[in-house]
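Q: Could you fold this chain for me?
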Amino acid sequence: MKKPDFKWIKNSRSILPKGEWFVEFFTPGELHAHRALEVLENSATAFQEATLIKTHTFGKVLVIDGETQSSQYDEAFYHESLVYPALLAHPRPRRALILGGGEGSTARNILNDRGMEQVVMADIDYNILRFARRHLHEWHRGAFEDPRLRLLAQDAKKFVERTASRFDLIYSDLPSPIEGGPAFGLYTVEFYRRMKRILAPGGVFTIQAGPGTPLQFELHPAVAHTLRKVFKFVGSYTAFIPSFDMPWTFLYCTDSPALAPARLNAAALDRAARARLKRPLTYSDGLTITGAFVLPKYYRDRIKASRAVITEARPMFFSTSRH
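A: Sure. Below is the predicted structure, expressed as structure tokens.
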């Protein structure tokens, strides 16, 4: 019997139309592809390789070590999700620390708060910072020139270990903890304990915590369980990032009962935004933020079942593009 001829089943030799494509294989049977119209810039450093490409659908896309880092058209989905739950929940944040954050967009969003007095951004890769400053204006929009930003081209881990400063908010906007990369040592319980010492009373720590797709839901439960060894209140939340082609996850951590994830209130967050933010948001508001913490049962069960604790002796290595 002749097999049905389905036009929507493609032969691997003709799967992509003509042209250049940036392809990420998430599993041996799943890929996401961006049509790459032009390579705009490239910077290979001692730590990582950054490439800025122009794509058909998402405009400029920043690629770090072969993984989509963020895109011009939907970076707000990611960066607003990372920044605003803690920023708007905290009643009076004055000092913030960013671990990583090379594009400058995380800093831009924190500096959107009129009351913010200083943001310290520690990124190990000077060349990536220079690359971002020159070529990622759509991301940072001049944040690097804001006098409230203190930019440090140094190892964020060493800064945390050596500083005597205290911060109301700390954000971990680091790349995936790939083996041999610059970030895996900042995903351990030992590091989080050292970092907590510089978090001011009533402060909040937020971290990007990897994919939320069931096929790659490994990093998040491990980081969540690790952080529960350090903080009293740890909340998981998600946002779908179109250019990633998957949900992305975050963790919100505090010791303050008043700022616990379960206490977040949409109306109160909206009032804080109206009172404190210089410009309106694209992706986030109170309802978006509180709704992001409502996880499907599958994810709650996976997190609850996790027993992993990431340590210096037993680090976790993870990459979304593995095949």
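A (continued): Residues 75-89 form the longest helix (15 residues).
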